[in-house]
Design goal:
The chain is of the alpha/beta class. The chain has a single domain (4-167), classed as L,D-transpeptidase catalytic domain-like (Beta Barrel). It has 3 helices and 11 strands; from the N terminus they run H-E-E-E-E-E-E-H-E-E-E-E-H-E. It has helices at residues 7-15, 90-95, 148-157; strands at residues 26-29, 39-42, 47-51, 56-61, 64-65, 73-82, 115-119, 125-127, 138-140, 144-145, 163-167. The strands form 2 sheets. The protein has a 9-stranded mixed beta sheet with strand order 1-4-3-2-11-6-7-8-10. Strands 5-9 form a two-stranded parallel sheet. The longest helix is centred in the C-terminal third of the chain and has 10 residues, at 148-157. The two termini are 24 Å apart.
């Protein structure tokens, strides 16, 4: 389900840079009992893991759903998008009536950021953000937010159909 060719670039990106571990992706030991290439999101940690199958995973910092907005269980990636337009779901529009019905891709007001992996469960996605200060927090309506560089990196390593597991 994931493209092996991207790992050399990914490994180099993980080892380069001076960001703290709270704000940087890194390779870590991981034994989640899932098949290689599965995305595992641990909401209590506010971390996303891309399992590699050798007892390790690439760990990314993320923002997750606020209290009452989280979901748990299985989904699958059903779309991959670069600079996607965004249409706020009905719940978001109820809470924020002034929002337009569509925000163009690439707009600084578009909460999807640089890219998105849509999921086959509800109106949820794993996506970039124009609010990097929200990473590491309980901040969304259920979507998983990543740094823009991280969503582009993750997107290059997974395919449509990649399983996603969200756990506490």
């Amino acid at each position: 389900m994931f493209k092996q060719s991207g790992w050399a670039v990914l490994a180099a990106a993980v080892l380069v840079g001076g960001a703290s571990s709270a704000q940087a992706r890194e390779r870590v030991a991981f034994d989640g009992g899932v098949r290689p290439g599965t995305i595992v999101i641990k909401t209590s940690e506010r971390r996303l893991y891309l399992t590699l199958g050798d007892g390790s995973a690439i760990r990314y910092p993320v923002a997750v759903g606020r209290l009452g907005k989280q979901w748990f269980g299985w989904a699958a990636v059903d779309g991959k998008y670069s600079r996607p337009a965004w249409s706020p779901p009905a719940e978001v529009l109820r809470d924020n009536p002034p929002l337009p019905s569509v925000i163009a891709g690439g707009s600084p007001h578009n909460p999807m950021g640089a890219g998105a992996l849509t999921l086959n469960r509800g109106q949820y996605a794993i996506h970039g953000t124009n609010r990097p200060d929200s990473i590491g927090r309980f901040a969304s309506y259920g979507c998983i937010r990543m740094h823009n560089a991280d969503i582009m990196d993750l997107s290059s390593c997974v395919s449509v159909g990649t399983p996603v597991m969200v756990v506490q």
